[in-house]
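User: Here's a chain of 839 residues. Predict its fold as tokens.
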Amino acid sequence: MTTTSRSTPQPLAGRRPASLQTLAFPRLPARTLDRALRTALRSLATGLLAAAPMASVQAQAPAARTVFAIPAGPLDGALTEFARRAGVLLSFDPAVADGRRSPGLAGAYSVPEGFAALLAGTGLQATLRADGGYALLAAPGAPNTPAARGAAASAATLPQVVVTGAAQRESPTGPLAGVVATRAASAFKTDTPIRETPQSVSVATADQIEVTKSQSLSDALEYTPGVVSQASTFNRMVDDVRVRGFNLANANTGMLRDGMKYQPSVYDGSQEPYGLERIEVLRGAASVLYGQLSPGGIINAVSKRPTLDPLRELTADIGNHDRRQVTGDFGGPLTEDGVWSYRVTGLLREANTSVDYINDDKRYIAPALTWRPSARTSLTMLASYQEMRTRFVAPARYDYTVNGRIPRSFFIGEPGYDRYDSDVFSAGYLFEHALNDQVKIRHNLRYFNSSAKFNYLSYGTLSAANIFSRGVVNRTEQSDGLAADTSMEINFRTGGLDHKLLAGFDYFRSTYDTHRYAGTASPLSLYNPVYGSLPALNKGIDNGTRTESDQLGIYLQDQMKLSDKWVFVLGGRQDWVDSTSTNYRTRLDTDAKDHAFTGRAGLVYLADNGLAPYASFGQSFVPQAGSDRLGNRFQPTESDQYELGIRYQPAGSSTLLSGSVYEIKQKNGLSADPVDTTFSVQTAGLRSRGVELEARTRLDRLELIANYAYTDVRTTASSVPADIGQRTNGVPFHTASVWGRYDLAGMGVPGMQAGLGARYLSESPITTSAGKATNIPGRLLFDAMLSYDLQRVDPRLRGALVRLNARNLLGREYVQCTVATGCRYGEPRSVIATVSYRW
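Assistant: Prediction complete.
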């Protein structure tokens, strides 16, 4: 433990005390680090200028072969994808390819070789035209069918068709340019258009995360309807958000990674947004595919994965609060045939924060490797390691923060004692194999491990002389999780119905072990703090627990489509949960066995004009630990959701508009036992009701995200009559946000883009420690971005970009509370300058 000498320093916001130099991260003096970073950037620019001519020469010499990975499927789609990636012109009558299938393509091919492989067995061939384009003709010796004759006739009369990026089919796990996602996998565990999903889905893409410079998962979701997070001073350390008024903070309440449950405890650490390809938010009950979950929905973070297109990116950040960060993202094929491909994503950050003595340091690396021996089989291995070195921003009372009595930079802890040191490791794989064109099997597995040392001093009472008493928390945390999911997808047709049947089972074993000790600490002056007095711990009493849980579920789901107009979804799941909890203080073990059946049904109508109205019903459940005064174990909470909505996606456009209304009813919650308030009874009920609107579009040079949510969450049943009808603490009625990015080339400034965003939350209810109902003031915050393509300065700087981001641009002071004693100041103005290079 580091001991700080007794002195009377005046804490300065943004300053890192010398005592912090003993942390695990090596430190350089600020001037030395600034000078080194400037030297590195100058060297980078010099290297770019020197390498650019050679890169230009190399770009002019096209490779004889290109790596392709095109799955088996309809011939027209396979040809379109191949022509787009190969950069060639292809002309053919769609009727010629109708009903024909291609065996797919995997490996390195020249253009003629690729066409030959894709068209094998179809009786067709691609012939080079005089203008350099290709036409689809009947192969020599092929049957003289009407389709073959039509192909030959079409070749002479059809105009050339340029296949562009718009023809590329979006992948719910791959890179996506822009902010408009049209497909997602979280709702059904299958690749499904969002327009065909009878439940609210939002996707924050990697492009959105990058352009808004999101520093946490909650930052990335601030332009998503129905999502409310804790203050960013807390959420940079952990991911703790609410969706439709319900908390999603760990694996058993809704946090997923790559479609599987992730961290057993909220305090295991946050997920690094730079390591994500997208974040999918499925709002509403979803236990039918994932087991025990909050009725608010799920947040599925999708890892960056290997690509067949070469990817190289380096960025360097400098910002206020002494922020310095370097990131890198590299990927591409490892072999010429594309059978092996890789990706490595990494981050290194050293920074202070707006609170004295609290740093924000992180190291992150995520290697990934894909083996794709054929178009039908793939195995992707994913791993990540993350170190966080920071300190906890202790929550304070409502009246100490909302009234501004505590300075926003005030540190209640001790520099030599407070710490949050978290190390998180995960490793696993995603396997998929197509037995034929109709049947796929998938098997995914991941191991998770986290250890954390979590010590802090907390706020006590404030005397008339402005002296705070302080509490002591000393914690060590250890979490382990093993998640596995195995399923079979079968596509078939019965009568007039097309079916996508999914059957599978998943398993999640988690262990959460925490040791917690209390103690005593000296008081601290609010306006003249003197640090250096370490707390005295009582190691004789361990207030921690150990919880082990095994969850097994089997599920069956059928996505049906009739005449390409009607989509029907039916699903059911049976869960078994076996858990054991040990209280280290009492040495009592509590065993619990729960089981539940959950279901889902949905209907969508796909109109020709792009409209898609839908209706759905879904269920969720969450087991509860403990028992009542009579020793009866608590039953799981159960929730039902009803949702009506509509989407609009005009054909051929980059626009998706969504709207929904919903109601969630939860029963079997806990409230105080009227006979003995030290116990609980299972009589509480909650109801969440709301409206959500979302628009995502790209119109010429403008990219736009806009959303609004009305959320009303209230207690509907309780043993305490005064609680009935009361709104849930910290959930505002109204939230809205808008983000727009505009390419200024249309205004005569080529290479420059500007972005502006606004985030609004109305006042939210809170019940003070005295039992008085009051409100947390609302807030309106602005964000901004300005970027410039350095290629406009010098053509040799192709791929180099500079960007400036500002969050809370006007420096608005605000407070975010979850309970009356759980309030924190929001992050003040944050400014980050970025230099990036992609090649």
